[in-house]
Amino acid sequence: MSHPSEATTDRNLSLIFLFALTLFASASLMFVLQPLFGKILLPLLGGSPAVWNTCMVFYQSILFLGYLYAHYLSTRYSHRRQILIHTVLILISFFALPLALPENTTPPTDSNPTFWLLWTLFLAIGLPFFVVSTTAPLIQKWFASVGHHTSHDPYYLYAASNTGSLIALLSYPFLLEPNIGLANQKSYWGIGYLLLCLLIAGCAFVLWKSQQINSPLQDSEAVIDEPKLSLATQLHWLALALVPSSLLLGLTNFISTDIASVPLLWIIPLTLYLLSFVIVFSKWNDKIHPLMVKLQPMFLLPFIAYAFINPADLPYWAYLILHLIAFFFAVMVCHGELAKLRPHTRHLTTFYLIMSFAGMLGGMFNTFVAPFVFNAVYEYPIMIIAALLLRPGRMTSPLQQVIAPALLVLVGIILYSSVNNLLEYFDTTVICLIIVTCLSYLLRARPVGYALTNGVIIFLALSLHGLSSHTLYQQRSFFGVLAVREAVLLDEQDQLENYHELFHGTTKHGAQRLAANLSQIPLTYYSRPGPMGQLFKEYDNNDQNWNIGVVGLGAGALACYAQPQQNWTLYEIDPLMVDIASNPAYFSYLSQCAPNATIRIGDARLSLEKEPDQHFDLLVMDAFSSDSVPTHLLTKEALTLYFNKLKPNGILAFHMTNRHLSLKKVLSINAEALHLASLIQEFKPELEIPLVIATDWVVMAKQPETLEPLSLSRLGNWKKMPLYFDMKPWTDDFTNIVSIWK
């Protein structure tokens, strides 16, 4: 990067502090606003990933437009004009304060709400978010003209921006959300926005006072020796920013579907992503970047061996660490190259504009392309390979670069032409792949050959394990990857028996035995010895004409408790889950036990609002069998809705099996606040019965007498809910996931 010839003499640290604080504040406000407004929208639109995807596209698009505005403003107008135009924009944005949804706004019920959501986001937060989005490139461009002795290289201020993002990211779930309700969060955000505007005004005053208010033309003429940007350079910037952006989303999705669906786990990859920007745009990058380039291929050897080729029987956190370290090396190398190639301040806004555009493209690829093209999270390994392609290194002839991967592809085709032989020599094939992975280290200085070789190894390993998992069906939707697999168990006579199981990522959502005399027996969380079997058996004489609602379909096992005179309504948010449960080739619970059941697709809370009051005798909430938590289904407002839809003596049953969170704490506190009777059973099977597993259920009613048959029965160990006093009730205004970690 070339430097301007004229010397600068201002060494005032207060200038750095002012501009850095402005960037820090703007990034913090941006990262707080996104989850804050998401929680505001949650009760209106439910927890569909399509909602969050639409929100993310809105945020990324506004960020890009903000960077485009900063680029246009700083390259077309004098500093005086820039300050005046930006002041007018800020004043107009005050009309959007305080943050709130437009009055009398409700999402459409008979059409796709995407355009309604985009318009609502624009009206509610569009202008403030746009102003915040312009700050990073515009303030750094202004700092380049204030005459400070570091003005020739203001990129280190970007570290302050990403530090603000990092602190806001960690503060929201662990500090703000547990202690401040939504109403106060909105008020405090408005105050923070006003303070940001004052800081921007301070930066503008410094720029005005510096008496360097020259036109962009004059400024560009002063840098005669700075070459124009080539298209190749701009495309290189684009790739270096796009790959880490896509890799971040891909890893987050991969973690939740293939490693562990642990709440708040998505924070770790995003933290590492932001931390990489802090490091590479600091003064340390010249020393750290070569070290990252050197260490990355060393760690890649155990990463590919243990994460893809031969996954050992390790705890989920060990796999998580492997993937996180590999991800950190990849983004550090890409972002390190990006920082090393940063241009003269003349092209600063162009540089940031391309970075924001790349981030938007990466997000759109993962959100709108990958789920429709791939039936698993294949965008993640693809971006691992793309990151290796972007490593610095020697460029040899194309033929030399592709010899090794081409030979591997040929071997793979030969192996897959005979699947039986491949599975027969499974261990030998795995050992060969590990040896080839070690040999690929020799290609580390040749990016194309190194990346392609490792790419072939990864996809050969994925295909190999796909063949050995006996997967009958696998497909992907907005809600994750669903798979039907065939497995084997020892039956009651110690004979091997095949059965089908349903997986959502790594979480089992149901299973069914295939023999005709066993196929109507509910299993796993819904077994007859378990809490749900006990409930239906205890009320067997009273439930002949019940109206029953079930939220969460799974494989459809609960339907086999249905009786001829009952009316069953099944609610499921994922249409793909309905297709699988309705296909007798995979699961026959629905077709055998409840062929006339009504199935409604959509978010449970929104769907139940459309039902008549006092309609159900029993409402089963089974949206909690995965380790992800739809918080809007657990609030006081949600419980009030459920009991409005239940008859006066109706029963509400909650499935709350969860490896990481104590959901009974939320239900107990909310039941106490609403004066509801409640019982809990944390079921553990006493005998080893095939596919009967431990599971936790809570039942609630308005009157204790309604639940008395269960509490007096000898079918199971139903107990009164324990009382908790260390947390406020969850509402649409307040939730606190951190407080219920086990």
Could you characterize the architecture of this molecule?
- With 742 residues, the chain is of the alpha/beta class.
- Among the domains are: 197 residues, MFS general substrate transporter like domains (Growth Hormone, Chain: A); 71 residues; 238 residues, Vaccinia Virus protein VP39 (Rossmann fold), CATH 3.40.50.
- The chain is built from 24 helices and 12 strands.
- Strand 3 and strand 4 form a beta hairpin.
- Helix 4 packs parallel to helix 6, helix 4 runs antiparallel to helix 12 and helix 8 runs antiparallel to helix 11.
- The N terminus is likely disordered.
Keywords:
Rossmann fold; alpha/beta; 11% strand; Growth Hormone, Chain: A; four-stranded antiparallel sheet; globular; disordered N terminus
